[in-house]
Amino acid sequence: MVAKSHGSFMKVGNLGFPRIGAKRELKWALEGYWQGKIDENELRSRTASLRLKHWRLQQEHGVTCPPSNDFSLYDHVLDAAWMVGAIPERFNPEPSLSNYFAMARGLKEQPPLEMTKWFDTNYHYLVPEFEAGMRYSLTDPKVLNEFKEALAQGIHTRPVLLGPVTLVWLGRHIKVEPEDVLAGILPVYVQVLDSLGELGAQWVQMDEPLLGLELSPRQVESFRQSYAYLAQHRKPHWPRCLLANYFSPLRENLGLALELGCQGLHLDLVRGAEDFEPALAEVPSGMVLSLGLVDGRNVWRTDLAKAQALLEKAQARLGTDLLEVAPSCSLLYVPYDLRLETQLDPRLKSWLAFSVQKLDELTLLAQGIPPEVRAESQRSLEERRNSPVVQNPEVRRRLAQIRPEDYQRRSPFDKRWPRQQEHLRLPTFPTTTIGSFPQTAELRLARAALREKRLSEEAYQSLLREQIAQAIDFQEEIELDVLVHGEPERSDMVEYFAEQLEGFAITQHGWVQSYGSRAVKPPIIYGDVHRSAPMTVHWIGYAQSLTSKPVKGMLTGPLTLMKWSFVRDDQPLQDTCTQIALALRDEVKDLEAAGIRVIQVDEPALREAAPLRPKDWPEYFDWAVKCFRLATSGVADATQIHSHMCYSDFNSIISYIAAMDADVISIEAARSQMELLEAFGEGRYPNHIGPGVYDIHSPRIPSVEEIIQLLKKIERYIPLEKIWVNPDCGLKTRSWAEVRVALKNMVLAAQAMRARGEQ
User: Fold this and answer.
1) Which of 64, 99, 240, 492 suits 366 as a labelling partner, its CA being 20 to 30 A distant?
2) Residue 140 class from Cβ within 10 Å (0-12 exposed, 13-18 middle, 19+ buried)?
3) Where do the catalytic residues lie (predicted)?
């Protein structure tokens, strides 16, 4: 393959591989099963084939010991909770596939587990619920079965386990303390490690990304006691343990990680480069260091010379046998294979590396980089740095001319609201939706036919007008107060804008898993961003022409457009985000000029994009909030600005949300049964708010009475004159059969609450 440069080959590790497959095979298998098109045996057969393909591919590309148990039918955190038997009382405890999916997707009368973002990624995990009185046991031996499955094919894997401390502290604790939950589940981990050892596993990867956060004294003690327990029960045949931290530096937790008794430690040296020197100085004799030198979160080629310099320094200190080269984290967060991209600009493509190419980079580092490969790598980096498609002088000039007043609305909220009401005349408990309506099979087929030139642009435009008209008619029929056009022209809330903004590129097959069968295709920001023409005015204006009710202009915010793309790594994030904000500012002004009185600029990524440690927040939120205000502050007082956020710990960021100064924000709240609203109580949020009353990530339809009860809960925290009524999120992934009933119930519930107030 590649000539060896020094000593014996170094081990090549991998913390995880994309589950969905090169062509989203997992998605199609899962949805076929849920729709009754295939049975459980067929689902298991297809997913077993996918796992085997991935193990063999990783071996072919140099991975010494591919991971197992990194594959999941829905979510690895749900798998870990399912493994230890953390099954809430409202679900059937029998270990069947239907019961597993019930926890993920809910049942008619049972809401699913709450869903939130996995650290600062755009991956969603299901939040485990630990209840008082739970009895823990090895409910699902998936980790054992998949190790045996690989072994039967002659492949020796390294099983991956979500560590017990991260599992427990990221969960919800219902009348039970985390320490008591740990005491219950640790015997299950002992049983798993013992069984893996008996099967012949040599190493196990124990993922504890909680170590990258600011730990409380209780959490520090949880780590010490949990790993002391595992050490006390350790037997000679047990596999050695590679403790894996990622997404953030260990910093003050490095000493803790080194003292937990594991035989190896993985460092994320992309996001935690500061750990490198201290780890080399403090690593105990005989401990293996896994160096995460290849970025598992972004798509740019690795600076091989820089990575090799670190590797050589570590090798001089520890030798080859105690080192492993690896991606910074699981490759779950990057696309599958760059070779599938046949339509990308060749110049841009030469700067990229997807999962398969990142494995090749690891092998190059492990075996030694030939001079000609190193020279080519440096040429590519230099070409990208100096390319005219990357830097735009006009964009940079405009950035330098931003004034302080560009970040401010003309008047405070209490002066704006009466002027907005003069135009909108909204009732109490005004109803609206977040933006998108179901993307029907007809729409998806038409979009594909347009791309393949089997459908004319005129016919496609006619279909969009028809869809928008139907959406307006439906909303007027059920008496919604603020309407949306339904976004039939948009394949994705990020991709749609990326297709129209300069500096973005779109891939054909750059899919990454979001949750379950849901995958997204993040655009790539490769250069300075600017807008060459209006992006939404035509369709929003058309929708407004069909009704006398207000129609919201729908935009994705600057931070979310950046965060949900693969962002360029050659300039500060603040600069990229500000460029996008300026482009959106122009769009907001054009919408207002077209007569749109309500404009929603969604920022669901506001919290997830924040640094993982709160001490690093002030600098980030300063520029993040400024970018939102730059995009939205150029309008008159009578124009109402909305924003939407979801999957956030709102309590910790309420002051920053208030600083955004949106007239109305809508938030995800249904899955948590409004528990998130405590952050907005006691006047801590001054403007208007729409807590979601319909969980759109589950197929279950809430009843009128259920929504009324949620609205009554909202009143405990928010003054009724400030409450809006809306779903948790956009309705793109739901069916019209579900949406029609759910939204009708939502409107009826709001009307009932109004009638109660008028009595």
Assistant:
1) 240
2) middle
3) 697 (proton donor)
Is 688 catalytic? The answer is no
Give binding residues for L-methionine as ranges: 434-436, 487, 602
Question: What percent of the chain lies above the pLDDT cut of 90?
Answer: 86
Catalytic residue among 54, 61, 266, 697: 697
Q: What's the number of domains the chain is made of?
A: 2
Mean pLDDT of the chain: 94
Residues 437 and 356 in one domain: no
Judgement on whether residues 525 and 376 belong to the same structural domain of the protein: no
Both 328 and 467 in one domain: the answer is no
CA distances from 599 to 6, 484, 604, 606, 644 (A): 61, 10, 16, 18, 11
Pick from 699, 756, 692, 701: which is nearest to 728 by CA?
692
Q: For position 199, what pLDDT does the model report?
A: 98
Q: To which H or E segment does residue 173 belong?
A: strand 172-174
Q: Are residues 382 and 433 in the same domain?
A: no
Q: What is the pLDDT of residues 18-56, one digit of tens each?
A: 999 999 999 999 999 999 999 999 999 999 999 999 999
Residues 6+ apart with CB under 8 A from 37: none
Is there a domain that residue 274 lies in?
yes
Q: Which domain holds residue 460?
A: 429-758
Binding-site entries: 24-27, 117, 122, 434-436, 487, 564, 602, 608, 644, 646, 668, 729
Which of 386, 418, 437 marks a domain boundary?
Answer: 386
Residue 97 lies in a domain: yes
